């Protein structure tokens, strides 16, 4: 039985060649400028070129809604050369208490305000953060097409969309929907079975995996099920002398849809460990063992 690797080579994403692991800024807000810069420098040192944020990130900090984007904008103001080194993705469409708005008026404003916070004139990827059930996909498509034509967004992606919602949006767009962003980890397996990975592969879309460590549950397993999954990951980690997190990222990347894990740690030392994820090799039997242990049953 032959071993196979996770995606070790760079991947094409939104028209750019990027690292196969991204760094996310969900918990980026609230840091001082020096610490913020240290995190970004650590990500670059680890080979990361794809950086993911959103306008809502930081809403649970004193800075409030938009503060993660604003902090990144402050970093760019201090060191403008960093912006040109990264492929930058952000998201919008969530409003606390609403909860979603993808109307033309709101999305147009959200994109412009994000760019202002980020102190940039464009982002390489802009994603609708959650599907708004009260906005027609044609209205959304027209708004995003205008932003794309104006050069504000280089490419369009969706986050937490179903394949059908994605196809409906794509039908009205003259440019492709280039990416999905959904939860995927050894503890959250939905994209394997709900059609998202199938659509990603069929349409040549990239897939960004949020919470690849199971929302932190794999770091500190609290139940028998999670401990059983973690034990298999630990065995692989021990085999290659890497962390459990690195083994988990490698498991995620082994799927042929070439998922891009979004690493969420804000600790520079842990960010620098990202390259460990490229070491482990998985056999089919080992990869499926993690899957079936997580499912709690064997595949037929």
Automatic annotation (TrEMBL):
Ranges for domain NADP-dependent oxidoreductase = 21-286
The record's annotation in Gene3D superfamilies points to:
NADP-dependent oxidoreductase domain
Q: Which GO terms describe its molecular function?
A: oxidoreductase activity
User: What GO cellular component is one of the record's annotations?
Assistant: cytosol
Q: Which domain of life is it from?
A: Bacteria
Q: What is this protein called?
A: Putative oxidoreductase
Organism, by scientific name, is Sphingopyxis fribergensis
């Amino acid at each position: 039985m032959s071993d196979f690797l996770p995606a070790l080579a760079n991947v094409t994403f939104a028209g750019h060649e990027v690292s196969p692991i991204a760094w996310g800024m969900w918990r980026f807000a609230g840091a001082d400028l020096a610490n913020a810069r240290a995190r970004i420098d650590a990500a670059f040192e680890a080979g990361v070129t794809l950086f993911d944020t959103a306008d809502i990130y930081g809403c649970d900090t004193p800075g409030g809604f938009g503060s993660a984007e604003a902090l990144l904008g402050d970093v760019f103001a201090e060191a403008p050369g960093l912006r040109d080194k990264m492929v930058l993705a952000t998201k919008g469409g969530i409003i606390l208490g609403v909860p979603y708005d993808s109307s033309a008026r709101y999305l147009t404003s959200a994109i412009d305000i994000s760019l202002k916070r980020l102190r940039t004139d464009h982002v390489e990827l802009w994603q609708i953060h959650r599907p708004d059930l009260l906005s027609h996909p044609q209205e959304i498509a027209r708004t995003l097409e205008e932003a794309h034509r104006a050069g504000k967004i280089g490419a369009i992606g969706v986050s937490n969309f179903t394949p059908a919602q994605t196809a409906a949006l794509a039908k009205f767009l003259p440019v492709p929907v280039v990416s999905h962003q959904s939860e995927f980890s050894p503890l959250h397996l939905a994209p394997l079975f709900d059609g998202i990975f199938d659509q990603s592969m069929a349409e040549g879309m990239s897939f960004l995996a949020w919470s690849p460590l199971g929302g932190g549950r794999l770091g500190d397993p609290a139940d028998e099920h999670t401990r059983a999954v973690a034990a298999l990951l630990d065995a692989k980690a021990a085999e290659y002398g890497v962390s459990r997190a690195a083994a988990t990222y490698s498991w995620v990347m082994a799927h042929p849809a070439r998922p891009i894990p979004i690493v969420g740690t804000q600790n520079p030392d842990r960010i620098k460990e990202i390259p460990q994820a490229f070491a482990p090799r998985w056999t089919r039997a080992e990869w499926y063992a993690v899957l079936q242990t997580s499912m709690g049953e064997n595949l037929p």
